[in-house]
Task: inverse folding
């Protein structure tokens, strides 16, 4: 028997009432999986039937597997599940059936007035284990009323799929976007089809066999300086290329070449994306087939249209030729640097042997060049080339093309032959060769590839004035006629620029290029490649830094013959000992104008400390010293001990001439391609580096150098106002002169061999300067000879008047009666403002070695008081900057 409710109904009878009530509450609930939600009492079986055990608890003997699957037919002939016959009426009042299956049921909770708010399941749905709690579950293809009551109203045209912003968009907009995308896809497919049908693929052997020569001209756009473009190429069959070099090239550029199609889907997608964003293809990543299509049939321009042509050509090539044929053509046309096209020419250029004789290690060196031939040349950037070499070998090992035992982390790449930068091109003079190399470097830095320069017949207009270039050649040749004959390894560089634009007007890179008649060999440009110490030509940079810190040109400093600076060594310890040239001695008390004119080290080193060494370094880079030049971060930086090129120094002096505005020196004015299109123009703008009043004061001090200082030999023939500075490094390693007028700035450097690294290459024993070459000697004379010739017909122009800004510091002592010399040491006179007192930046000032009246020196020794030495030398003060333990 079934238990009775309070009203006396059995579970079975009550279940029928409950189902009828559920049908009225949920008229939209249809059958699920063929099982309706209600049936009549007459269908219920009593006794031993399956439904007669409906009251049994799950897990009991009476509740068998048959109960879970036993179904009957209601009065409408629809099967129902008998396990739900005992549903309680109270539960049915609070719970609506949302979905029923043979294994589970999902209910919807109905809130009642007497319910206490509580954390209910999401959207009022009670869940069974194993069921999806998502409230969007549909019943019979429709949502339940409880769910629909909680959903926001739906517009008639609202979308049903996709993100919310897309579904909420108007229907017309969604259709427009979809039609637009479809149209773009169809147009792209049509474009590819048209390109494919009209693109013809010539035989690989006839492609790019010869290129067009590029021509470099003077500023007049007519007179030729040099040509670029002789093609060094020898085709060989693939059988004449060692398997190791084949594998090395595949490892470097397309390791899956034999198993992949001729195009790279990733590269195509990147091209499309970059074109949408900026209209230019800036990255590679192409297959070998694509690279060959680009190099053999197309130009090097980075545009979307060129990329599409490359893709079409690659597809046609892949269908027309075998993989071996494509690889052979690729190896015979790709550029490997140093003017070598093809693997055979590259093998002989880098290792002096045929491609069939290359080892895996040698092949990895050559293969690594393909990505960037000039930047990965082992003779140019050995560290980067070695990293690339290891990458290629690692890939070869990973692909099974090389035994791992041949590759160790400490293994070094094979040594390549020296660079022959002439690439077989004859030039009219060594100067033309250096100009050609500098032009190529500038164009590569500007993004024009070496292959474009060598093959595409560019017209390259430089800023060089032919008359001034001739003046530079004659100045060096005439002044150094005897020294060049007597000293074979003597080297000189000269460069002149236009202040404000940086346009190079003259460029003398050296007297020999390659192997000269005197037995010397050199490919180093003495203007842009030789980094040698500039000596005291660096001092105006320190002066500019000090003036910006509030120092005045009229400030007076003590200038002893020897200066000891404690605690200023490079490692923060020790003591620097600074000396003037032995002919200068003690200057007594002088202002900064005279200290500049006489190049007094014992004034300028403390001045750099007072200005702040960090300020001196930053000022140097702002004025024009290249950012990659590492300047010593200690007091010695003022004396020009670090290697700097003449190109950087002329930029500094050009900034002074331009009122404090810096411009980057450059040779190339513009480049025109073979179709007459201008593809590059050199920069002509300048930017503020130092205030104009500071530049005017520096210029005023530098005029004194030529008027009555160390640079008298540089005075111009017509008495034209000029400013400049001499420079001589210790042991006569280098000698410089840099100077300017408002219209032109020029620098001259002079050194021997390796730039004076060893004493054997010091500038001594030179005819006309046997004791040693000073900056005020040969360099100043060369500068004058050049400027006199370059300024023919140029109207003199005055410099701006000095501003004398900043605060005047007077270090001279007050007049006092002459003290009587006593036999015992007495204290030296106290120096006003600066001696033994912190400077305006709170740092201790230098201590001076006394001499004359016996005084106690800072290191406890006894010496005489300073006595001014009235002798002056015509030569530059020689920096003798010693470091000793203190």
Result:
């Amino acid at each position: 028997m079934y238990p009775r409710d309070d009203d006396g109904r059995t579970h079975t009878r009550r279940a029928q009432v409950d189902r009828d009530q559920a049908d009225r509450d949920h008229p939209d609930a249809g059958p699920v999986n063929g099982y309706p939600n209600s049936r009549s009492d007459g269908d219920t079986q009593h006794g031993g039937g399956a439904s007669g055990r409906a009251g049994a608890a799950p897990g009991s003997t009476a509740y068998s597997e048959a109960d879970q699957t036993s179904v009957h037919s209601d009065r409408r002939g629809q099967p129902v599940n008998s396990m739900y016959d005992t549903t309680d009426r109270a539960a049915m009042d609070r719970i609506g059936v949302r979905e029923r299956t043979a294994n589970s049921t999902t209910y919807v909770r109905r809130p009642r007035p007497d319910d206490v708010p509580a954390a209910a399941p999401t959207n009022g749905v009670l869940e069974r284990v194993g069921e999806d709690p998502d409230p969007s579950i549909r019943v019979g293809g429709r949502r339940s009323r409880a769910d629909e009551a909680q959903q926001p109203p739906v517009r008639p045209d609202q979308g049903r799929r996709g993100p919310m912003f897309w579904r909420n968009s108007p229907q017309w907009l969604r259709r427009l976007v979809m039609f637009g995308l479809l149209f773009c896809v169809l147009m792209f497919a049509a474009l590819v089809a048209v390109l494919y049908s009209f693109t013809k693929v010539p035989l690989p052997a006839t492609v790019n066999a010869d290129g067009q020569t590029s021509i470099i001209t003077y500023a007049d756009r007519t007179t030729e300086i040099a040509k670029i473009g002789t093609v060094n190429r020898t085709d060989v069959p693939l059988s004449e290329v060692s398997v190791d070099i084949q594998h090395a090239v595949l490892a470097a550029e397309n390791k899956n070449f034999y198993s992949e199609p001729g195009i790279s889907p990733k590269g195509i997608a990147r091209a499309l994306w970059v074109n949408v964003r900026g209209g230019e293809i800036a990255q590679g990543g192409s297959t070998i087939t694509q690279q060959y299509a680009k190099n053999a049939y197309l130009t090097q321009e980075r545009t979307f249209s060129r990329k599409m042509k490359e893709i079409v050509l690659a597809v046609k090539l892949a269908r027309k030729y075998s993989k071996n044929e494509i690889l052979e053509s690729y190896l015979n046309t790709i550029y490997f640097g140093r003017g070598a096209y093809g693997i055979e020419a590259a093998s002989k250029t880098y290792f002096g042997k045929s491609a069939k004789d290359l080892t895996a290690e040698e092949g990895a060196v050559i293969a690594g060049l393909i990505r960037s031939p000039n930047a990965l040349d082992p003779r140019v950037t050995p560290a980067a080339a070695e990293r690339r070499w290891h990458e290629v070998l690692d890939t070869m090992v990973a692909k099974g093309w090389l035994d791992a035992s041949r590759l160790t982390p400490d293994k070094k790449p094979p040594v390549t032959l020296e660079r022959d930068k002439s690439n077989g091109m004859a030039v009219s003079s060594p100067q033309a060769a250096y100009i050609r190399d500098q032009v190529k470097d500038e164009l590569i830095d500007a993004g024009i590839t070496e292959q474009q320069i060598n093959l595409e017949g560019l017209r390259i207009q430089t800023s060089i004035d032919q008359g001034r270039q001739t003046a530079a050649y004659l100045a060096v040749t005439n002044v150094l006629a005897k020294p060049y004959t007597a000293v074979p390894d003597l080297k000189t560089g000269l460069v002149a620029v236009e202040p404000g634009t940086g346009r190079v007007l003259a460029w003398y890179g050296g007297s020999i290029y390659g192997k000269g008649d005197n037995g010397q060999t050199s490919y180093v440009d003495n203007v842009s490649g030789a980094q040698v110490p500039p000596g005291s030509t660096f001092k105006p940079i320190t002066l500019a830094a000090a003036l910006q810190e509030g120092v005045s040109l009229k400030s007076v400093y003590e200038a002893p013959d020897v200066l000891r600076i404690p605690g200023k060594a490079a490692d923060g310890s020790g003591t620097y000992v600074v000396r003037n040239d032995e002919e200068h001695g003690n200057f007594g008390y002088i202002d900064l104008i005279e200290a500049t004119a006489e190049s007094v080290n014992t004034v300028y080193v403390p001045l750099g400390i007072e200005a702040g060494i960090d300020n001196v370094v930053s000022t140097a880079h702002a004025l024009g010293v290249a950012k990659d030049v590492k300047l010593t971060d200690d007091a010695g930086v003022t004396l020009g001990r670090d290697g700097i090129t003449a190109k950087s120094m002329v930029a500094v002096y050009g900034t002074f001439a331009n009122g404090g505005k810096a411009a980057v020196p450059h040779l190339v004015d513009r480049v025109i391609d073979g179709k007459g299109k201008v593809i590059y123009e050199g920069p002509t703008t300048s930017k503020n580096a130092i205030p104009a009043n500071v530049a005017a004061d520096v210029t005023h001090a530098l005029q004194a150098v030529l008027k009555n200082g160390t640079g008298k030999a540089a005075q111009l023939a017509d008495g034209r106002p000029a400013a400049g500075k001499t420079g001589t490094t210790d042991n006569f390693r280098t000698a410089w002169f840099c100077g300017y007028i408002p219209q032109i700035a020029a620098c001259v450097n002079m050194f021997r061999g390796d730039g004076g690294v060893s004493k054997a290459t010091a500038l001594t024993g030179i005819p006309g300067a046997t004791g040693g070459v000073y900056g005020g000697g040969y360099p100043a004379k060369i500068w004058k000879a050049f400027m006199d010739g370059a300024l023919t017909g140029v109207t003199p122009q005055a410099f701006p008047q000095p501003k004398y800004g900043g605060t005047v510091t007077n270090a001279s002592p007050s007049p006092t009666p002459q003290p009587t010399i006593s036999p015992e040491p007495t204290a030296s006179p106290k120096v006003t403002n600066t001696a033994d007192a912190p400077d305006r930046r709170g740092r201790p000032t230098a201590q001076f070695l006394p001499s004359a009246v016996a005084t106690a020196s800072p290191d406890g020794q006894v010496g005489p008081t300073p006595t001014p030495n009235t002798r002056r030398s015509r030569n530059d003060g020689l920096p003798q900057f010693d470091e000793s333990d203190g």
